[in-house]
Amino acid sequence: MNLPRIRLILAFIFLVIGIILTVAVGFSTSVYLFLASLFLIFTHYKFGAVWPAFQLLQEGEVDKANDILQQIRKPEWLSKMHRSYFHFTKGMIHVQRKQLPPGAVHLKAALQLGLRNETDNALAAINLAHIYYVDKNHEVCKKYLQQAIDFNSNDLMIKENIDKLQKALV
Q: What is the per-residue pLDDT for 71?
């Protein structure tokens, strides 16, 4: 589960072996090691370990998911999809820990970047609606509630939460 560190360790090993081969034999024999090292470093910064953290969050392992996300030093360097799930996962962690303002910031960023399916988008929107309901900002709450409805998710839990929030707003 420590994929980011493994990637960097492998990149370092390939780089060292490539340098040794370059000195001993020549550059042409080590070019593939340098390319592999560059590829591993590129994927480390472009993709991070967002999916393992997202999977851990789905399994209820909030602390482990947060630990993995903490290892991502430059989330702005992630690809658009990975950055959106970084913010989504981070936002859901904050919501589960009752840290609503930072959760709202991350969930808004995830919605703005766009998540890959309607259920994830609806889940982000319904959680934002809940945050604004708790803050007694009913206008913004209704906006995100409508957005959650518009995503048209088939998830029963989301539909139940939409119904509960609609009844609470009336």
A: 87
Identify the sign of the CA torsion 142, 147, 148, 149. positive
Task: Give me the residue spans of the domains in the chain.
Answer: 1-47, 49-169
Q: What is the reported pTM?
A: 0.87
pLDDT in tens, 46-82: 988 899 899 999 999 999 999 999 988 889 999 999 9
C-alpha distance from residue 135 to each of 89, 109, 128 (Å): 22, 19, 11
Radius of gyration of the chain (CA): 21
- d(CA 161, CA 142) in angstroms, rounded, equals 13
Angle at the Cα of 66 from the Cα atoms of 93 and 111, rounded to 5 degrees: 45
Give every CB contact of residue 90 below 8 A, 6+ residues apart in sequence: 66, 69, 106
pLDDT confidence band for 3 (50 / 70 / 90): low
Q: In the predicted model, what is the mean pLDDT of residues 19-24?
A: 95
* Ramachandran assignment for 168, one of left (phi > 0), alpha (psi -120 to 50 degrees), beta (any other): alpha
| CATH code of the region 49-169 | 1.25.40.10
Cα distances from 72 to residues 29, 40, 43, 46, 75, in angstroms, run 33, 15, 12, 10, 6
Does residue 72 contact residue 85 with C-beta atoms inside 8 Å? no
- At 129, list the tokens: 């609606």
